[in-house]
Predict the 3D structure of the following.
Amino acid sequence: MSEATNPVIRRGQAPLLLSLPHVGTAIPEDIEKRLVSPWLARKDADWWIDQLYDFASEMDATIVRAHWSRTVIDLNRDPSGVSLYPGQATTGLCPVETFDGEPLYRPSLEPDADEIEARTDVYYRPYHEALTAEISRLCNINERVVVYDCHSIRSAIPRLFAGKLPVFNLGTNSGASAASDLIKRLSDILAGSGRSHVVDGRFKGGYITRHYGQPETGVYALQMELACRGYIRESLGPVSEANWPVAFDPVFAGPTRLTLRAVLAACLAFARG
């Protein structure tokens, strides 16, 4: 495994791990030359989430951050290809279309089953091997560990959900991946933010939350899906290369960062008992 395929890791000692599987924008040349456009391939990245959560290092959290674009492979999908949201529109392990349904590849150049398997080996496994290793390391020095999966998405995508998404979307796999008292603590913080929020709404948690959240072993997992308007000056409606992504403004993002800091502090307090 070459170093270039590895995720970026910040190792801490606190019982908190942040996973950032969709912040990567790198695309190998052999894949990029088959795409409709590089911009379209990066359109659905979780823009600036690493900057939004940069305070987590002050909490001595471990941070695992993806290098490669989700167009190369989606690190938050089941590697078997099974849909996490049966009956609902979504994208696959190696997406061939955007969230809006636009084709990512030029005709007849989509990845086939052999290529998807090869991408799984080269790009998917290193990220999950890193998560597994870091969770194990943290479990060796902490009685409880919280895995917090960081995501964002445009506020309005009619193909995926009706209307406007709440700003804070907390996913707990319908309560199976985390303890009820932790979920209540976080829900209370979100309610007190003055922003819209939901628990286990449209986004109940992807593969990372569902796979690693095993409360019986002391590992609790959550997904936070943020509507982009909560931290960047997002204009609702269709986006283009001329207006997306919007630049990150730490002042505009400030109120959301305060709420997220409180959320992570509550995760730490829970993990420390």
User: Anything to note?
Assistant: The longest helix spans residues 113-141. The mean pLDDT is 95. The first strand starts at residue 8 and ends at 10. The domain at 3-26+44-68+124-271 is CATH 3.40.630.40 (Aminopeptidase).
